[in-house]
Amino acid sequence: MAERCPTSELHADGASSAAREDHHQDDVQRYRESIASLRMWLDSMPHLICRDDDDFLLRFLRVAKMDLERAQMMLDNYVTIRKSSRGSPHWFDYPALDDERVLRYLEQPFVHLHLGYKASGEAVYLIGTQDLMPFDQLVTTLYMTADVALVDPHSQTSGVTVIVDMNQISKKQLKLFENRKTLFSLLRNWQDAFPVRVKSVIYLNEPLYFDVIYAFIKSAPLLKQKLKDRLHRVGKDLDKLRRLIGEEEAEALLPEELGGRNGSIQQLMEESKLKFHSDDVQGGMAADARDGRAGGSATAFHRELFENLHGALSLPL
């Protein structure tokens, strides 16, 4: 998607077209200078091996609201959690797109669905939890789909709301989150390490034994209060879910199973799979994470998808 500079936020109604054009050109120049500055800083950090193209760097600048120091910190964290022993590289060891694990993941009953956008541009996602997957594989696939979502500029500009339906999660799986080290890693990875603006996370159909984990999350010192305030629990109360999203928009965005008119979850799953397979891959795709080289070729959708899933690679396809 082509980048649009947020000029609508800078002008009062009635501004002349010439004034708008001048401001637009100023914004374009500011973006270019910020991207160049971030790239120059990245070049000075040889331990940070990642893409340095405009689209990739702009994600961090958008979320940082063009604050260069904050964008640098987020990009540093982004690479560190994926590549360093101080991070969680085993969760970011993504399989190839045609790997059996990915294909099996796509067949799971709604693990990750994009429901659409609010009028503000905020993207709304529904995430399901599955007892069929080993814990580490579940975390990896969730990170994969999160990285795919970063392709959408709305995730950095307008933000995202994530509905987490815990209806299928087992006590055995949830107990793994009680491990303080594991939970710390998950919280650290999400905060200031993903170029995404989280507007709200809504837990749905959560079991009773989620209480302990939720209490720990809300009291975790490392988690910023602003993010804690954006965590919500609704249980089975669909009316509360609709109020959090907005009554009219919930009607249009939620699937039928959650009281909306956005089709059934099964229909949304099929649409999601069609999008994933919308373009034929032209040749094989491979990556060598050790030296940052990537090979193969793909059509536009898979090219962008592949670049995101292997965002720590240094060279473009």
TrEMBL record:
UniProt xrefs under CDD domains: SEC14
InterPro entries attached to this UniProt entry: CRAL-TRIO_dom, CRAL-TRIO_dom_sf, CRAL/TRIO_N_dom, CRAL/TRIO_N_dom_sf
GO CC annotation: membrane
Originating species: Macrostomum lignano
GO molecular function, one term: phosphatidylinositol bisphosphate binding
The protein's name: CRAL-TRIO domain-containing protein
Disordered as annotated region, ranges: 1-26
PANTHER family per record: ALPHA-TOCOPHEROL TRANSFER PROTEIN-RELATED (PTHR10174), CRAL-TRIO DOMAIN-CONTAINING PROTEIN DDB_G0278031 (PTHR10174:SF208)
Top-level taxon: Eukaryota
Upper classification of the organism: Eukaryota, Metazoa, Spiralia, Lophotrochozoa, Platyhelminthes
Stretches assigned to the CRAL-TRIO domain: 98-266
